[in-house]
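Encode chain A's predicted structure.
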Amino acid sequence: MARNIYRLGITGVVFAAGIAFAMLVLRAPVSTGKTDAPVAAKSEAKTLDRSDVPMDDERIQAAEIGLGDAGPGTVAKRLVVPGAIIPDTDRVARVTVKLAGTVSELRKNIGDEVARGEVLGMIESREVAEARSEYLASKLSDDLQQELTGRDKGLAEGRAIPEQQYIKSRSAAAQSRMRFDIARQKLLALGLDDTEVAATPTAPEGTLRLQAVRAPISGRVVERKVEIGTAIGRDSQSPELFVLVDLGKVWIEMSVAANDLASVHEGQNVRISVAGGSVVGTAKVRFVNPVLDKETRSARVVAEIDNPERMWRPGAFVTAAIAVEERAVPVVVPMTAVQSVAGRKAVFVRTADGFRKRDVVLGQRDGASVEVSSGLKPGERVATSNSFSLKAELSKPTDED
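Encoded structure for chain A:
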């Protein structure tokens, strides 16, 4: 009996020891020949490397990646309306003549650039010939009378002639000067300038019947309405010879609905773009018509834009975005600098070795620019164009993938 009890005790101890050993084996980690610490370090290093894109200056230039500094700027809430480019009415000149005659010479054609005062053509006119002849006659008579009056003055002072004779001579001189001035004013009224009038006494005889047609403004010839031999002036059918337009500044004519008119006023900036946005410029509101159109119930708004390169062509349709509410922000970048990486907005900041992806939070967008609310500091240099190539580099698999 005692022996059986002893055997059962030994068996129980052995069974319990087996269960304990099995539990230890199940809980022990499977050995891979590597410790846990290096694995964690490697995983962390891999995460850090996925934000960096190594790239030297040569590769940056080859990839045509543009660089720019993030910094303060202005963003605006804009009212977008259609518009059309028209010439500035203060820079349009219709060249006419004030006499009857015939076109004898044309020196400018459509498309030619002209300077103010430059000769566009020549008019042959009997009227100008008569006016110049009258001017020459009155000038000769006046010169003679002034000389006689000067002589009579000296004689009267020496009491060689009666004072009454000197008074008559002085009156005649005043009348001759008045006739000379009238003849001169007639030439000016016909369109001659002071230089041409003064040169009349020494001008060749054959040119006395000719009058030069000069450009009143600098600009471009957009219309030429006469040919050589065309009769012009008074009863003729050609009151205009040329139409000149100075395109150094042009107007943007817009139509703004009555509901939006309260937020539009003179002096506001307007971003102008043609179809496709290939050409973009900034204009300034010059005029807001207080009277609404009866049919459209909208007001005419005119903005002015500089056009030194002649990019803005009258007649073209544009999209106008009027800045009705503007505010300054500390950091602005071009939209081309922003990429979506793993569902988040990011920019690529220039580093000593290349670029580093930086997650950012965007604010208000204004055309081609956008506010960066957080994630970027003023003055940091970022990729502003072709940044998609950096995103592609970042997405390439590495040796650890």
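The chain is about 30% helix and 35% strand.
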